[in-house]
Amino acid sequence: MLKLIKMTVNEKPVELAVDERESLLETLRERLGLTSVKKGCEVGECGACTVLVDGEAIDSCIYLTVWAENRHILTVEGLRGPNGELSPIQRAFIEEAAVQCGFCTPGLIMTAVEIVGSGKRYTREELRRLIAGHLCRCTGYQNILNAMERIVEETYKTVGKEIPGG
Length: 166
Ligand code: FES
Ligand code: FES
Known about the structure:
Radius of gyration: 16 Å
CATH class of the largest domain: Alpha Beta
CATH topology of the largest domain: Ubiquitin-like (UB roll)
Number of domains: 2
Order of helices and strands: EEHEEEHHHH
Largest sheet: 5 strands, mixed
Shape: globular
Helix content: 25-40%
Strand content: 15-25%
Number of helices: 5
Bound molecules: FE2/S2 (inorganic) cluster
Distance between the termini: 39 Å
């Protein structure tokens, strides 16, 4: 059964009729052309399909699009600056050589956005646990953690203190 859904995707209002069984992964990738959202396991195990819903990282393969009604969705495509420039998190991944084949990268970047958004200063061990829901088939975890650690430190120094409740 089709349902008319209104949501915001990368700061743009979107209105479309979706099947009630359609996953947010299918809607974003196949209907809206947001191919940064990767289709991996499709059972919530690999993290490749991670996007933010109202600031919270979720596996879009096990999240129904109808649940996104009136919510704000953010994907990697929405991180670009007004002139197409990369975000600091994307730059950190490149500079720390945290990208190999790149399949896991968009999902990890979206989790990094959530982590950085908290304003907290996480230890490497805490970061390791926070990315435990992501599988990297190329196994470049050390460089991924280097990038995460770097962006968390840079953000923390910019903000200067932990954000209360973050
Ligand atoms: S494709 Fe969604 S968690 Fe693997
Ligand atoms: S860089 Fe290839 S899966 Fe992670």
